[in-house]
Structures are given as structure tokens and as C-alpha cells.
Amino acid sequence: MSAGAPKRVLILGAGFGGLELMTRLSESVPDKVNVTLIDKCEAFMFGFSKLDVLIGRRPAAELWNPYRRIAKPGVEFRHETVVSIDPVHRRVVTDAGTYDADVLVVALGADYEVSATPGLEQDGYEFYSHAGAERARDALAAFSGGAVVIGVLGPFFKCPGAPNETALLVADYLASHGLRESSTIHLVSPLPMPIPISKKTSAAIEAILAERGIEYWPSSRVLRLDPERHVAHIEADRELAYDLFLGIPVHKAPDVVLASGLAEDGWIPVDPTTFATRYEGVFAVGDVTSAPVPRAGGIAEGEAVTVAEVLIAQLTGGAEPPPYDGAGACYVELGGNLVARIDVNFLSYDTPVAKLAGPSADFVEEKRRWGSTRAERWFGEANSRADV
Q1: CATH 1.20.58.100 fits 7-110+253-323, yes or no
Q2: What's the whole-model pTM score?
Q3: Which of 6, 138, 235, 253 has the most Cβ atoms closer than 10 angstroms to its Cβ?
Q4: C-alpha Rg value of the chain to the nearest Å
Q5: The CATH number of 113-251 is which of 3.30.457.10, 3.40.109.10, 2.60.120.260, 3.50.50.60?
Q6: Domain residues of the chain, as ranges?
Q7: What confidence tens digit (pLDDT) does each residue in 286-320 have?
Q8: How far apart are CA 153 and CA 340, in angstroms?
């Protein structure tokens, strides 16, 4: 990038990736960039907070971080919906205007295709959207005992640990309401194991599920729900009856991305070392890409750090930064006031690795700090929801 006027950096999507990227650029080169951050929502909520909503631990109103609180040098937030993306000319049209960029970063995440699983809208509850988590919370509150089925409905989904967390937190919830003995819990997933890159970590999680009386069905894909019979139809002509079905819906790239020409096979391909796309000056991070790493907030944050380092080096004439290493960590709630941490590294070694630490009560506070420090960093110490 040549010197001169500040570069126009346009970031589409204000999740982990977009928020971390705008923060890094504002901290390091505020005089060299004009960052515009666009999101269709008015506020940010951590993904793991939706489980707090689901089990009624905290109301959603306490968990939002409004984007209007962002006050960083060189950054402007726009509450708008992206209508079209032209990656060749780096031009974006929203419902409120048109933007031309020197650098375009697509961080729009994944959308949920509830209709991809017939019967889910009529007889089940997705809990990955904010509104869906509240509807599922109300259904759980009205539940009086019986068969609970937690189903992962697609091969790619945000936060690999979330299905296990959900099953264990629902088990805790039912126990606290005197319903555990009169209920069964099944966890059904198309994945071959909880954490496919590690047999050892997966075995540890499976043991915890078994100890809590949760029946785990791996390599099992739910094809549809039968609202009349309250039965989930599963591959290999299997059926599983339910009184309450909680589903992680099929994920897909947003329609505006699919229409842009950026996507191949449903997702945006990127150079996994820099997150550059095949279009000059266009990058993509987070759940919308087909990078060989999990879809998770902490991973998207690490990807954004890499893009920031690439852009900062270009803007300052600095040395080329090291390639993205695919490292990250996620926290998994295991019920009983216990949390485990899974440390992963996908790209630094010959094969991906994952290590389970805990479970421990100490990780409860570590997880809280992990969230609160990011909220403070992105939204400002005086304004953030520190107790996330």
C-alpha cells in the first residue's frame, strides 16, 4: 500500500473477527486507516451467552454490548444491512448507502438454515440465534419431563464444544427442577466424535457424558422431524422419539456472500496463512470461510489478528508477519460449576492437535475473565458488559 491519505478499510460483520480487526488497526495505525465497521445488528452477544439464556441463568437484556458504545480512533460503526458485495471493485451496497474500499474484509459469519431440516420449525427449537435461544428457554421452562434430544443438524457449526455443553447444562437444569430422574437425554451428531481431531480429548468428553447419563449417538445425521409422532428420523432407518427437541441448525454462508462470487462450494476460500481471497485487497475471516480450522469465536479472533498484522505491515513498510498458526482455545461448561478448556492447534504441526485441561472450578473464573477482557477491549472499559 502506498503512503498518502488514510486507507479506507471496510469490515463487514462485527463479530469476534470484525471487532478484533478494527481494534487492532485502531490501536496500531489510527492515522493510516479510516475503518468502517458494518453490522445488521445493533449489539453484540458472546455465543456462549446464548446457553445462559437457554437454561434461564441470565436474561438476554443483561448480555448485550451495544455497538454505539464503540469509540476508537479511526473507526466508525454503521448499523446497516449489506445488500450486495462487488469484490472486484471492492464496492459494497447496504440498505443505507454505497461504500468503496481500499481494503475489504468479509466477516459476516454463517446464517442458520432452519428449513434445511424438515419439521424443525414446527416441532423443534434451534437455540443458536438470539431469538431462538429465548424460545428454547421458554420450551425448557414448560418441560415437565420425558425425552430430550439435542441434535447437531449439519456438518459445520459454530463452537464444536457447544453440543456437549448443551447436553450437560440441560442435565443440570433438569436435576435442579426435580426432572432428571423422569427424563432421558440423547445427544445426536453427524461427527464421529466430540472433537474429531483428538481421540483422547473426545474419549474424556464421552466419559463425562456417560457419567451424567447422557446417551451419545455419533456419526448420526438427523434427516427430519415428524411433528405428528414427535420422532426424529435418523440415517440408517433409525428413529428417536422426543418430547423436546433442541437443534443446532444447518449453517450456510449469507445469501449476499453466495451472490457475490466470493464463495466456492458454499464458503469463501482463503489463503490460510493470510486470509486473503483471490480478489486483490479482499480478505475474509471467521465462520464464512472454508479455512481448515473450526468455526468458533476464538478462532475468528486469531484470524483477524493475522489480517491486522498483514495490513499493518503493508501500511508501515514493516516485515512480513508470520503465517497464521491455527491455534486457539475454547471453554466447555460441563455442569456442576465445572469448566474445561480445550487448547487446539490446527496448522503448526503435521496434524491438528487438541488438549483438554480440567474440568476445574478454576476455569469458571478464567472463562469469565476471557469474555470480560474482550468486551472491555472492544467496547471500552467504562461501557462494556464486563460480567459476561
Answers
A1: no
A2: 0.93
A3: 253
A4: 21
A5: 3.50.50.60
A6: 7-110+253-323, 113-251
A7: 999 999 998 999 999 999 999 999 999 999 999 99
A8: 25
